[in-house]
Amino acid sequence: MVVRKPRLGPDDWTAAALTAIGEQGLAGVAVEPLATRLGTTKGSFYWHFANRDALLEAALRSWDETYTDAILRTVDAEPDPAARLRALFVAVTASDRAPVEVHLHAAADHPAVAPAMRRAVTRRTAYIAAQLTALGFDPAEADRRALFAYATYLGHIQLVVRIPEAVPHGAALEAYLGTVLAALLGQPAANGTG
Amino acid sequence: MVVRKPRLGPDDWTAAALTAIGEQGLAGVAVEPLATRLGTTKGSFYWHFANRDALLEAALRSWDETYTDAILRTVDAEPDPAARLRALFVAVTASDRAPVEVHLHAAADHPAVAPAMRRAVTRRTAYIAAQLTALGFDPAEADRRALFAYATYLGHIQLVVRIPEAVPHGAALEAYLGTVLAALLGQPAANGTG
DNA sequence: GTCTCTCCATACGGTTCCGTATGGAGGTGG
DNA sequence: CCACCTCCATACGGAACCGTATGGAGAGAC
């Protein structure tokens, strides 16, 4: 863990901060513990950054790029809206990105984190809504379903990170995601009593 | 705010702790700040409690009772499963309980909070699944939809607390909840292109 | 070799919290 | 009225941080 590099740059600190967010949340972005992990001291940190908040904002910019921009770029290469949505769902449920997302959302009361969360929800729901509109939903319904999908995503990663026992595995997880996708993409169903 | 009561009991500290969780999260459960708010000092606290964790556990027991037991008792007085589910949705979206729920979930990495979150998700999803089963869904599908509903709830309160601008108001909120409820309670819809 | 500039180590003071020790203040029983 | 018991105030030591000050260590310019 204490892999000493002869000299460090700001990017090393930013990457370490993002890793720490995934493991311990915002509290993990602490100068002295990070310095220990990087095998250096605060002297190095305060050479590259003005203060802790500057590091946090750099980490959040990196998060924007990795956790929203890159994902949407990749997914957007799919040929049609249905495939794009499907690829998006696979990408955000299958990988190990959940901890960072959950911990950041949990710290959205911090003045530097709140704008990042706003940017994320805006861009992500807009992208989903655009796909739904392309699938034939009228714009208002597309917006509602996009928000619905995003809320479900947030709750899902919350459960995955905080209470993993509550989330099914394997085939049961597949069946669960099938139920969710059918509900999100299906026709506005009439009320049913089963 | 500093309403001095001549003598305090454990319940005063527990209530203050739960209020602090709603406002500032787990970090708000700090002995010295709470003492200031209650117009007393740490001397009082450490008379009634062994340490900070003891206060936290008392607050979590109080949370169990207020935020799960009481709600489910009230809702269960409704005459039929559909009405119970509807009352449950109204109860959990309309009130100001969201901040406490969100802040507690955000602190589920704490060893005392994690069991409380497990208890909550277990009891709540079991209750929802029971209503869905009574509505005619087969048990496996009822479990899936209950978890789906709970994930959506978690994401929703997360958005309400952290990024309120992202959640619609008034009539738009009604329309949104209508879409959500239709999807959660509707027939397993066939895939639609609009 | 020495000068200089970049980068880091160490030491310090300040803040906020936890938990302990100890000395009361104030009501209650005898 | 006095001894006691419950409850609280004050003072202290310790831990984990942040940010600053200052003295180098190392590498390139010349």
TrEMBL record, chains A, B:
Matching entries from InterPro entries are given as:
Homeodomain-like_sf, HTH-type_TetR-like_transc_reg, HTH_TetR
* PANTHER family assigned to the protein according to its UniProt record, in alphabetical order: HTH-TYPE TRANSCRIPTIONAL REGULATOR RUTR, TRANSCRIPTIONAL REPRESSOR MCE3R
Entry annotated with the keyword Cytoplasm: no
Q: Give the keywords, sorted.
A: DNA-binding
Full protein name: TetR family transcriptional regulator
Span of domain HTH tetR-type: 15-59
What does UniProt list as this organism's lineage?
Bacteria, Bacillati, Actinomycetota, Actinomycetes, Micromonosporales
Signal sequence coordinates: none
